[in-house]
Amino acid sequence: MAGAARRQFGRLARAANNAAPLHLSAGIGVVIAGMTLVTPFAFEAYGDNAFIALTIAAGLLTIVATRLAERVPIDHALWLIFGFGIALRIYALLFDPLLSSDIYRYVWDGRVQGADINPYRYVPADEALVFLRDGAIFPRINRVDTAVTIYPPVAQFFFLTVTRIGESVTVMRLALLGCEAVTVSLIMLLLQHMKRPVTRVVAYFWHPLPLWEIANSGHVDALMVALMLLGLFVALTGHALRGAVVIALSMLVKPFAAPVFAGIWRPWDLKMPLVVIAAVVLCYLPYSSVGWGAFGFLTQGYLSEEGISAGYEIWPLSVWRLVFGEHQGDVVAYAVLAALILVFKGLSVARSSDHSITSRLADINMLLLLTLLLLSPNYPWYFLVITPFVALCGSLPTWVVSIGALLLSEQLDWDFYIPRMVTKSILFGGLLLAWALTTWRTRMQRTAETGLSP
Q1: Using CB atoms within 10 A of its CB, is residue 292 exposed (0-12), middle (13-18) or buried (19+)?
Q2: Is there a contact between 84 and 29 (Cβ–Cβ < 8 Å)?
Q3: pLDDT tens digit string along 105-153?
């Protein structure tokens, strides 16, 4: 009897110990849900600065939820995580895109291809496409009379496929949420292989960046991230060439996935580059009737329009110019230097002797952060490429960048406008500070372990 009583007491004690983190997690979920509920109305009433404040606060709470999730029993935690995560996405889906009109171009590109017309041939306002215009999609397309599509071929395949089901923003967003379901599944699989709690998936599932940029705005980066993670999972579990093909497909949605190759390639292995080149050529082949025009608006004005070719929107170069002034040829010099840095870091990752999944993902995470720093994207959805790593790696720099990216939601349409270089300075300055702090902590930990003085 005494033994049974002790066992019962032990079970009650464990239940009480687990209840506190569970209740706290549920409380945080309720607060994040409350913030999400008011965000669209706050945006309409007070502008994008209210949106930024609410989403950043939700991101900070997600960090706390991630710490707590590791202490909650898996069954209870997953019900809680998925319940809130799915409910929040359904809610965001109810509103028209708040901060971007890109999804209307996706639907348009799919419609154009459905009419057997190359989407890289005409700008939407061209008279050759007049029979495709409607009152729901066409009036909301951006750059309607100045730009053919910018999106690479795998994105175009996706647009065509989805619009054969339905030519609407809702259908496109549901398809992108399907991509996100793949991403969440792969995060959990990778966590299992890393022997880390699968409940860490809350870091992605409750994160405000994918919530608003996929469920609400419907950015095709969701497809890029899903293919990138699938390729990584395939490659890191023993099928490098197959994984490389999938990552190549990811790169042909958005090229920000390209640095990931360094995590699965081995120097002097020529098969992988050849396979990737073949995949790229095959994907572009159906659109080759327009020649170099198949590279779309990217080579016909986007780099200039976004201030990249002149260097004004590249944060490290802008900081350099602030100190030393602008000089002729500094953009070219910066591009060469940035390319050399990325190549050097990529080769360092490829040559690493630690082939464990945990180490490889950490290296890829670092390389993607470096890429984002050097390229300094102007919009928050470009940072979706890093969001799975808040769950997989959970490093301070990754959290800083993924949450700080929400600062780039600032729009010109509102009276109180924070200059983009100010927000980028906060974002990337925060990244550099987080890197420095992480390096210092690592050094101090190693010093403590070895018993040596600094």
Answers
A1: exposed
A2: yes
A3: 999 999 999 999 999 999 999 999 999 999 999 999 988 988 899 999 9
Report CA dihedral (63, 31, 51, 438) to the nearest 10 degrees: -10
Distance CA 176, CA 184 (A): 13
Structure tokens at 46: 């007070």
User: For 308-318, what is each residue's pLDDT tens digit?
Assistant: 777 788 999 99
Q: Give the list of residues 6+ apart from residue 118 with CB closer than 8 angstroms, or none.
A: 287, 289, 290
Domain boundaries, the chain: 11-408+420-450
Rounded Cα distance, 14 and 5, in Å? 14
DSSP string, 27-39: HHHHHHHHHHHHH
Find how far residue 440's CA is from the centre of its chain: 27
Show the CA angle centred on residue 380, arms to residues 258 and 387, nearest 5°: 60
Distance between CA 177 and CA 103 in Å, rounded? 13
b/e per residue 155-188 (b: at least 16 CB within 10 A): bbbbbbebbeeebebebbbbbbbebbebbbebbb
| Signed CA dihedral, 161, 165, 167, 173: sign only | negative
> Would you tell me the crossing angle of helices 153-165 and 169-193 to the nearest 10 degrees?
120
Q: Is 452 exposed, middle or buried (0-12, 13-18, 19+ CB in 10 A)?
A: exposed
Is-contact 194 392, C-beta < 8 A?
yes
**Cα distances (angstroms) measured from residue 4 to each of 1, 8, 9, 395:** 5, 6, 9, 44
Distance (Å, whole) CA 123 – CA 85: 38
137 φ/ψ angles, rounded to the nearest 5 degrees: -100, -55
Tokens of residue 386, six digits? 């890093």
The answer to whether 116 and 397 are in contact (CB under 8 A) is: no
